[in-house]
Amino acid sequence: MKNFRREYAGRSIVTICGIFMIALMITIAVFLIVRGSGTFTTYHHSIIEFLFSSNWSPSDTVGVGGGHVGAAIYIVGSLVTCGLALLIAVPFSIAAAIFITEISPKAGARIFQPAIEIFVGIPSVVYGWIGLTLLVPWIRDVFHAEQGGYSVLAAGIVLSIMIFPTITTVSADAIRSVPDSYRQASYGLGTTRWQMIWHVVLRAALPGILTGVILGLTRAFGEALAVAMVIGKTRAFPTSILSPTNNLTAAIASDMGNSANGGEQNMALWTMGLLLFIISIICIVLIHLISARNKKKTGAQ
To answer: What's the whole-model pTM score?
Structure first.
């Protein structure tokens, strides 16, 4: 009877915590939808204007509209910087994961992976400050970039360093989950170690690696402070990776505190937040689809 009560109490606590987290998530979603939709319902702007126009001049007076809320520059800035970050980080992350799991598994598990995971706990302002004091002057001196080195390249490099631990850790776990029988069968067919890694292990671990890439992309989209310190915050489309620009998170972080609650600019910034939330939801759905497909494929085998 005593054990039954403990079991019931533990199950009740876990259930309550789960319901609370679901309710919290729904509350955040509803709040963002209500505040973010004000751009379209209160100030009567169109979704086309918000997504594809570069004219950004919203009014900051509550109840007074008539401005323009084209966020295309911020959207393009986020896409370009996050895409560049993935191009830089993914090859290094997969190479590091292969080294940790296949080349030197003992040292990787004891030394390298714990060292990589330490980077996850470093505050973003530290990355931004290092980028501001070291990376930006280096880009200025080496590439003679405009705006003194504040650029898409600087933001992409900083973001790539920030998402590197996430992609590496998840990829390493995915590679470790590949059954050893796959490796032994590959060796039995006469393959070299690299052929086994490339043609067997990486292909079997691909769903987990893609999950790590999507998680890294989600973090890159949501990062604000570090990017804001090195991107230049210029309201213009980037003409190259050495050009300054702005992105969604940097715009929200810099302008939200100076906007009147309920004003056109404030509503437009909340719409940016809603867009980032939708992007995060899409990434989570993709992760679940990849996992479900992998489970279905594994079960079929």
So the answer is: 0.88
